[in-house]
Write a structure and sequence with these properties.
mainly alpha, MetI-like fold, 11 helices
Length: 277
């Protein structure tokens, strides 16, 4: 018994050491990336980046275009994802609901460039050229399974007693869902939506051949539309130092935007936990 116990303790220590080393290695690379991004990005920042368009050496139209497509994707994807998540948790039972959950998980892990290729074939090629609508649809397709999973998980945390109490008071199924269940899960749902928004706003691959980018200010989604992420990719491949500095500045701005959205979501979760104690 002593030998077995010693062997288990040794294995436990080895696994703990390997896990700690792996975590530290990941943190080292993360710190390296963020430090490089901060140093190069901050040194390239200038107020004119927010007041000029790309054609004049600024980023104003690119930031605007990225937010517009991400917001359109959110308006498309959130209602569809929430309705699907509500169906899975409140109405769907048995193997069919499990199949839908599995398909949603597969979609969530699907390479973004594959989604971009699908949108290109359906919404770009038949219409004769890249356009902003195609970019927004590609982002919406990526956002929907995230919202489905979030809604399904958040509704599962609502106690069954609340559902039973609502039905006992004479409420119909849809009234109980709208007035009790969704309100009880609203903080978690909002956090999930914010994190999903942060996920899609930084995407590049599906936008490369769906919306492309545009160096000029435009609100016309029927043609090539400004994209911050695609422009970062293009600028980084330019041979001039000025273009690369602009790419570093754009990368830093995008990272700050995504970080702020994620921190907002984390703050909402922590604030909810404090109030519940």
């Amino acid at each position: 018994m002593n030998d077995i116990k010693k062997r288990r303790l040794l294995i436990n220590k080895i696994i703990l050491a390997l896990s700690t080393a792996s975590a530290m290695l990941g943190l080292v690379f993360l710190f390296w990336i963020l430090t490089t991004l901060f140093l190069k990005g901050v040194s390239s920042l200038d107020w004119s980046l927010f007041t000029k368009d790309l054609v004049n050496g600024g980023l104003r139209n690119l930031i605007f275009g990225q937010f517009v497509m991400a917001l359109i994707a959110t308006f498309i994807g959130v209602p569809l994802g929430m309705l699907a998540g509500i169906y899975l948790r409140e109405y769907g039972y048995g193997k069919y609901a499990n199949i839908i959950r599995d398909l949603s998980d597969i979609m969530m892990s699907a390479p973004s460039i594959v989604i971009g290729a699908f949108v290109f074939a359906v919404f770009v090629a038949p219409f004769g050229g890249i356009n902003g609508w195609a970019g927004a649809i590609a982002l919406a397709i990526m956002l929907i399974p995230i919202v489905i999973s979030t809604t399904d998980n958040m509704l599962s945390l609502v106690p069954k007693e609340l559902r039973e109490a609502g039905i006992a008071l004479g409420g119909s199924k849809h009234k109980v869902i709208l007035d009790i269940i969704l309100k009880a899960a609203k903080v978690g749902l909002m956090t999930g939506i914010l994190l999903a928004f942060a996920r899609v706003i930084g995407e590049t691959a599906p936008l490369l051949f769906t919306c492309g980018t545009n160096s000029f200010w435009t609100t016309d989604l029927n043609n090539a539309f400004p994209s911050l992420t695609v422009s970062i990719y293009n600028l980084a491949n330019f041979p001039t130092d000025k273009a690369r500095d602009l790419a570093w500045a754009a990368s830093f701005i995008l990272t700050v935007i995504v970080l702020m959205i994620n921190l907002t979501g984390r703050y909402i979760i922590r604030n909810r936990k404090r109030k519940s104690k």
